[in-house]
Design a protein that fits this description.
Number of helices: 9
Strand content: under 5%
Distance between the termini: 47 Å
Structural class: mainly alpha
Radius of gyration: 18 Å
């Protein structure tokens, strides 16, 4: 734990729960929204999941032990909420229908400006299992180190390397078959 994190925890203990939550929300809401958005792809769904994440943070704030940074803690909650959300959607739609729905939502998003190659890449990424997609997004798009991803996900670096390697192989295969 860094000195800054320890200082933040010390300061946080003196703040009211509402002030502590407000600080966490202010510092993390945008990063958490985009993390969730990369997983669920649809803006409205990402807003809903992000709201659920911060509701869970509020409810669990008293039990935060300070063994990690607030961001790491909130990030883990966001990953779990995103995966749970996708799992619920899969119960209503089969996997291929869900992937098609997510892809259509992505390419129809007014902020998406990718060419055909980028569309193919995102379509291939959507075909990955959720956890592989999470690792791929964090490593490829966010350029996070395995050690950081390990802290954020609670997964060993070896398992993350294997997931990323498998994801790259699957994406390469999918892009080769489409091309």
């Amino acid at each position: 734990m860094t000195e800054k994190e320890i200082k933040n925890i010390s300061v946080a203990k003196k703040l009211s729960k509402a002030d502590q939550f407000s600080e966490i929300l202010t510092e993390n809401k945008e990063r958490i929204y985009w993390l969730v958005r990369k997983m669920v792809l649809v803006h409205d769904d990402a807003n809903d999941v992000t709201q659920d994440v911060f509701l869970k943070v509020w409810k669990s704030l008293d039990s935060f032990k300070g063994e990690s940074s607030y961001y790491t803690w909130v990030h883990r909650i966001a990953v779990n909420e995103s995966l749970n959300f996708l799992e619920k959607k899969k119960r209503r739609l089969n996997t291929s229908e869900l992937n098609e729905h997510l892809f259509n939502c992505l390419i129809s998003d007014e902020y998406f400006n990718g060419d055909e190659e980028i569309k193919k890449l995102h379509n291939a990424i959507l075909r990955l299992p959720d956890k592989q997609r999470l690792v791929f997004n964090m490593k490829y798009f966010e350029a996070k180190k395995y050690s950081e991803i390990s802290k954020l996900t609670g997964t060993s670096e070896g398992a993350l390397k294997a997931s990323y390697h498998l994801a790259v192989k699957k994406i390469t295969l999918l892009l080769t078959n489409e091309g």
